[in-house]
Amino acid sequence: MLPRSRTLPARIQNGEVEPRQDVRHYLQVETQPKAQNRENEAMNIEASYSKCFNDDGRLKRTGTAWTATSHIITAVIGSGVLSLAWAVGQLGWVAGPLVLTLFAFVNLYTSNLLSKCYRSGDPVTGQRNYTYMDAVKANLGGRKVKICGLIQYINLFGVAIGYTIAAHYLFRAIKRSNCFHKSHKQSECHMSSNEYMITFGIIEILFSQIPDFDQVWWLSILAAVMSFTYSTVGLLLGVAQVAENKSIKGSLTGISIGTMTEAGVVTAHQKMWRSLQALGAIAFAYSFSIILIEIQDTVKSPPAEHKTMKKATTISIAVTTTFYLLCGCMGYAAFGDEAPGNLLTGFGFYDPYWLLDIANLAIVIHLVGAYQLNFFRLVWRTCFVIFTTLIAMLLPFFNDVVGLLGALGFWPLTVYFPVQMYIAKNKIGRWTSHWIGLQMLSMACLFVSIAAAVGSVAGVVLDLRTYKPFKTRY
Questions:
Q1: N or C: which terminus of the chain has fewer CB atoms within 10 Å of its end residue's CB?
Q2: CB distance 381 to 59 below 8 Å
Q3: At what angle do helices 84-115 and 268-285 cross, to 10 degrees?
Q4: Is residue 325 over pLDDT 60?
């Protein structure tokens, strides 16, 4: 309640106005301290605000190099790791590990370029870009923003198809593994795959209707646990198979001409196409650039965010590459020319069947959690899932689709846009040695993407010779 002297007029006593004894006190004693108090309060509020919020008004970022590292590893290691044994098998003991390592270095370099585009202008105090698209818009603008958006939507569409194909392989693998166990490997256990794709499609229609499903806090943790579960199982079973064989299979140059596969006998031309397709499969396994900026947006400063991310990407890509080399090489060492397209569903392993079931179920859970649609509502989301499921049923070729996705996403999203943004942000002059070096890297990666896409399309054409849509049984 305010003091009386501030709210009521002076009192009149015996016909005279009572002097205001408190006026001087109010003006000289109270006013100044109150002003000082308000200033102190303002400073306290500002200090509290700065402790809770960043300069852009968002909640204080608390991420470190280690949390960013864990996010990157979680994002990178996914279902693509299961095709690496097949990829190494096409390239051989020399080119296989070498290509894996080269892709790691390219991703490391371009990721560092991309991380420097997180802030526009000054690398410490410049305006933040919260997503990959924000960075493209701020640094390139114009038509390139629309082109980048189109590529991302095509990539999303392709990944949705790839997840559906992978899920049907996994559902089928669980049932077939149990069938082999019950029949003591006497039955061929043939079955149709259509029902499993439809099942996965129905599950995704339901999940795609959940508002902000991608914002569920435990979803990424669950996906990470599932990812490491099936990857580790695949690695351990590869090691066990090598120990059982008591020898290391494979050759220096990869799959031999004349090897019998599901698509027929491998010819010289087919060996070339398969080698190119393997490049796409490896590129797909390393795809994470699209979310790098969002991971960087969780990192606190100082030090500058791009310095923290440089450490995080170096550690995470080193860990991921080591894991990839182990999985790819152990799978190839275990099966040689017969290395399956998907380590867990190619049925190189039948026992222990329950361990296979756990690993395959872990992949299904991971795929369900990763399949997140954030731009559609009821009708459009449902139509999107139905359409991708139909495409997957028409072209259920895991390795071909993985190779094509890797080819389509590698050059534009991992190399081209990060390079162009870095050039624009740092105003690197045309025909300078730095500019020429960056353009040479971009062009070399473009040729790799084109080669991988051609090889993957050739694989689809080859598989279509023996596949009958909606009828083929495996």
A1: N
A2: no
A3: 40
A4: yes
Q: Are 295 and 114 in contact (CB under 8 A)?
A: no
Q: To which residue do tokens 């947006």 refer? A: 297
**Amino acid at the residue 30:** E
Q: How many CB atoms lie within 10 A of CB 42?
A: 10
Whether the link from the prior residue into 396 is cis, omega within 30° of 0, is no
Residue 462: both structure tokens together: 């080859």
Check residue 229 and report its DSSP letter: H
Pick 4 or 186 by higher pLDDT.
186
**CA 165 to chain CA mean position, Å:** 18
CB-side neighbour CA atoms (13 Å) of 143: 0
- The position carrying tokens 């596969």 is 261
226 within 8 A of 366, measured Cβ to Cβ: yes
DSSP annotation of 299: B
At 103 the pLDDT is 94
Cα–Cα distances (Å) from 351 to 69, 117, 172, in that order, read 35, 49, 16
> For the segment 108-162, what is each residue's pLDDT rounded down to a tens digit?
999 999 998 888 887 777 888 888 888 999 888 888 888 988 888 888 888 777 7
